[in-house]
Design goal:
139 residues; single chain; 2 helices; alpha+beta
Length: 139
């Protein structure tokens, strides 16, 4: 015995209305972006995704998380609930012109396609609002 328990591969009915979407992309800017601005971007992105999910009909925002990695900097942000406090923590780095962004949204009450569409469109809108460009995506 390995100490691990084999889990039933079928989904528990209690979780039927919980769906998630995760993505990773590279984001670039025309000039250097400070750690302060990256923290502001992360906070606004978390709040915008949560709000957009609620507007789309979500019953609850289980969590939305983001990781931003650049040079020696690494930030993580999250929000729980539609009006929850956004937390942005981590290690600030030197100003940068590019960063890796990972986002994971776990939402109760929206279909998997809706969670994906809302998350992706909100990321695109927020990236554009800050004058950044989403240059590549990985699933």
């Amino acid at each position: 015995m390995t100490g691990f328990m084999e889990l039933n591969s079928s989904r528990n009915p209690v979780h039927d209305d919980i769906n998630s979407h995760g993505m990773r992309c590279l984001v670039t800017a025309a000039g250097s972006v400070s750690a302060v601005d990256l923290r502001r971007f992360a906070a606004e992105l978390m709040a915008a995704i949560a709000s957009a999910c609620v507007t789309a009909g979500a019953k609850d925002v289980s969590h939305v998380k983001a990781f931003i990695e650049y040079g020696a900097g690494f930030l993580h942000a999250d929000i729980v609930g539609d009006q929850g406090d956004v937390k942005v923590e981590g290690r600030d780095g030197e100003p940068t012109e590019r960063f890796s962004l990972v986002v994971n949204s776990v939402i109760y009450g929206l279909s998997a396609n809706a969670v994906k569409d809302v998350t992706e469109s909100t990321i695109n809108t927020t990236v554009g609002k800050f004058g950044f460009v989403r240059t590549s995506a990985e699933k």
